[in-house]
Amino acid sequence: MTNPPVPALDSLSGLAFGDAFGDRWFGILRREGPEPLAARIPPQEPVWQWSDDTAQAIVLVRELAEGAGTVDQDRFALRLAEAYAADSHRGYGASMHDVLRRVGAGEPWRDVVTGQFEGMGSWGNGAAMRVAPLGAWHAADLDTAAEQAARQSEVSHHHPEAVAGAVAVALAAALATRSRGGPAPARADFLQEVAARLPDSDVRSGVRVAARMPARTSLRHAAEVLGSGYRMSGPDTVPFALWCAAGHLDGLEEGLWFTVEGRGDIDTTCAIAGGVIAARTGVAALPPAWHAAREPLPAVDEGS
């Protein structure tokens, strides 16, 4: 068992804050409309419960700790299935319910995931939403960060676009970690560096578009052009979430408020942005009330 590096734990905590914070807004916006968000009134619920985004990220960090920073795909698949069986009411997507039930029942994970969607595999954002701590873990080696991000994606999301989305988030978290203690990279430079290491894909195209957006670009326009997760796919989630993160690398709280205003798949965009930003900043600067409200994280050296 290897102790996770501090940036990876910071990233996991930031991911959980983003997930729990973002998830609250689905209900608030439905019940109360946009006014609380416009006024930036934090969710008033006493407990901000995190969703499957964080549940899967915890499993991933435990897998990295067990594997000294590497992902054993067979073991990781079983860990995901076991975590799902223990607590399946965390908001898992329909395809993940099917995958994890079947893997838990003993079907080979490769057959299950490669057989989805007429053999193309899922291109959902689930592999990207959990991966930021892996990027922070491997900040010293971007090639390893990309390789391991792809390996963890393939266990549940086999489609090349899902893999590219996971690699993009891991690279962003790695680059954010590398900048700890120094000036924050400019948004365009940061996104261009991520895009330069991605395979040819819609995700890469989206990140490149995000990098070229003028500084005056409005949040509404960015969400419309890049997509903010309404399709819950890698291509329409990752570029927007990274654009939000890249513009707020010195401010986790502001970054989460900004990201949630893009609507869409709010818990996931905020989880991605939170995981990337916190890899650089940590979470200590968040308001005490947020720390008191967010559901605690279990120790990552416990069994999954």
Automatic annotation (TrEMBL):
Molecular functions per Gene Ontology: hydrolase activity, acting on glycosyl bonds
Annotated keywords: Glycosidase, Hydrolase
Gene3D superfamilies assigned: ADP-ribosylation/Crystallin J1
Keyword DNA-binding: no
This enzyme's EC code(s): 3.2.2.-
Protein name, per record: ADP-ribosylglycohydrolase family protein
Naturally occurring in which organism (per UniProt): Streptomyces castrisilvae
